[in-house]
Specification:
- There is one protein chain.
- By secondary structure, the protein is of the alpha+beta class.
- Helix content is about 35%, strand content about 25%.
- It has 12 helices and 13 strands.
- The radius of gyration is 21 Å and the shape is globular.
C-alpha cells in the first residue's frame, strides 16, 4: 500500500496552496545561475557537493535545456536547507522535476528533517501547479518519514591519504596484480583538462557505451563539461596510453576536499593491459597528493555485481544511495524500476556507431 502524503511528509503534512508566481516568505525559489556568490555560499556546508554547484547547473542547462528550480530555506540569514531541482520538459517522457538529472547522488543541503519537510512541500505545490508527472529526489529519503525507496543503488567512497603505500595495501590482490601488469606492459597515464583530451575520452566512451548496449551522450555534453568544469580547474581527465594509443580514460569532478569519479571508458581490445586499473590508481595518487580527502566512485546498480566488485577492490566503503519519487497524480511516493538494463541494451548494442551517436544526441534530453 502506498503511503499518503500526510504520512510521508512527517512534520510537513499539509501542502500549501500552489502558487506559481511566488514561494512562501520562508521558502524561496532561486536560479543558482543568477545568484552571485552561489558556490561560496555552499562551501561551508558538508552536505553540499559538486552537483549543487553552478558549474553542474550550467552544464545541464546548456546541454539539454533544463530549467533550474532550486528551493531554499534561510533562517537568520543562513541557508537551512536546499533542494536543487531541474525541470525537464519533454514531449516524449513528460514534464517532471528531478534532483538532479544525470546525477548519481544529490543529498539535500542541510540535514534538518523539519526544514526539509517545509522545502519539500513547497516543491510539491510548485510541481502540481506546473503539471509535473512526478518529483524525484536522488537523496534525502531519511528526511521524509515513511517515504518509499523508489530505486536503490550502491555507493562507494575511498578515504585518501598521502601515503601511496598505505593506499596500495588496502587494495585487493587482484587489483594490485592488474596495476603491476599495466605498469610492466608500459601503459602510461597522463592528466589533462583540454578539449583534445575530451575528444580522446569521447572516442573511448562511444566504444564503451556500445559494449554495454547504451547510446553515448551527445558530444556537446562533454564540450560543456570541458568549458564549465575542466577548463575552470573543477575537474581533471586521466588518459592511459599504450604505445601512444589511448586505451582507457576517466573524468573526475572536484568540490572542496572531495573528488568524484564520474565517467570511465576504455578500448575493449586492450582490456588485457588493465588500463582501467592503472587510470584509477594514478588518479587516486594524484588526488591524494593534491590534498583531496575523499574519492567518490558514483552509483552502481544493485544487479551490476562486476562493477560492485571493481569498486570494492580499491578498499572503498559501501553504502546505499536511495532515491524517492513523489507521483503528483497519485499524491503518493511510488517505486520505480532501475532501467540500466533490459531489451533496449540488445538493440543499441547492434547499432552501428554513427546511428548510436545519433540516437544519443536525440534521446538524452528526454531521459534525464
Amino acid at each position: 500500500m502506498l503511503a499518503s502524503p500526510e504520512l510521508c511528509l512527517g512534520a510537513a503534512a499539509e501542502l500549501p496552496p500552489a502558487d506559481v508566481g511566488a514561494c512562501s516568505s520562508a521558502v524561496q525559489r532561486v536560479n543558482p545561475l543568477e545568484e552571485p556568490g552561489w558556490d561560496d555560499k555552499l562551501k561551508s556546508y558538508s552536505s553540499a557537493s559538486f552537483f549543487h554547484s553552478t558549474a553542474w547547473a550550467r552544464v545541464l542547462q546548456d546541454s539539454y535545456g533544463y530549467s533550474p528550480v532550486y528551493f531554499t530555506l534561510d533562517e537568520s540569514g543562513r541557508l537551512a536547507c536546499l533542494l536543487a531541482i531541474m525541470e525537464v520538459k519533454s514531449w516524449l517522457t513528460g514534464r517532471r522535476g528531478i534532483s538532479l538529472p544525470f546525477t548519481d547522488d544529490c543529498e539535500p543541503v542541510g540535514l534538518d528533517a523539519v526544514a526539509f519537510g517545509r522545502v519539500f512541500q513547497e516543491a510539491v505545490a510548485y510541481a502540481k501547479a506546473r503539471g509535473w508527472k512526478y518529483l524525484e529526489c536522488r537523496g534525502g529519503k531519511s528526511l521524509l518519514t515513511g517515504a518509499l525507496v523508489s530505486t536503490g543503488y550502491y555507493g562507494h567512497h575511498l578515504r585518501l591519504t598521502t601515503s601511496d603505500e598505505l593506499l596500495y595495501s588496502g587494495f585487493k590482490s587482484s587489483v594490485r596484480r592488474a596495476i603491476r601488469k599495466a605498469t610492466k606492459m608500459g601503459v602510461m597515464v597522463e592528466f589533462a583538462q583540454n578539449l583534445e583530451a575530451v575528444r580522446t575520452f569521447y572516442a573511448l566512451q562511444c566504444q564503451t557505451r556500445r559494449k554495454h548496449g547504451l547510446p553515448p551522450q551527445p558530444f556537446r555534453f562533454f564540450e560543456n563539461i570541458h568549458s564549465q568544469i575542466l577548463s575552470k580547474d573543477l575537474g581533471v581527465l586521466a588518459v592511459a596510453r599504450y604505445q601512444h594509443t589511448p586505451v582507457a580514460a576517466a573524468i573526475f569532478f572536484h568540490w572542496g576536499s572531495k573528488a568524484i569519479f564520474k565517467y570511465g571508458a576504455s578500448d575493449e581490445s586492450y582490456q588485457h593491459l588493465r588500463g582501467n586499473n592503472l587510470v584509477m590508481w594514478e588518479a587516486i595518487k594524484w588526488h591524494a597528493r593534491n590534498r583531496f580527502e575523499l574519492l567518490h566512485f558514483g552509483r552502481t546498480s544493485l544487479s551490476n555485481h562486476g562493477l560492485q566488485r571493481f569498486k570494492l577492490g580499491w578498499g572503498a566503503e559501501e553504502s546505499m544511495i536511495e532515491y524517492v519519487r513523489y507521483d503528483l497524480c497519485r499524491d503518493s511516493f511510488v517505486t520505480a524500476k532501475d532501467e540500466a538494463s533490459g531489451w533496449q541494451n540488445r538493440v543499441f548494442h547492434r547499432l552501428p556507431g554513427f546511428a548510436s551517436r545519433l540516437v544519443g544526441a536525440m534521446l538524452y534530453e528526454h531521459v534525464a
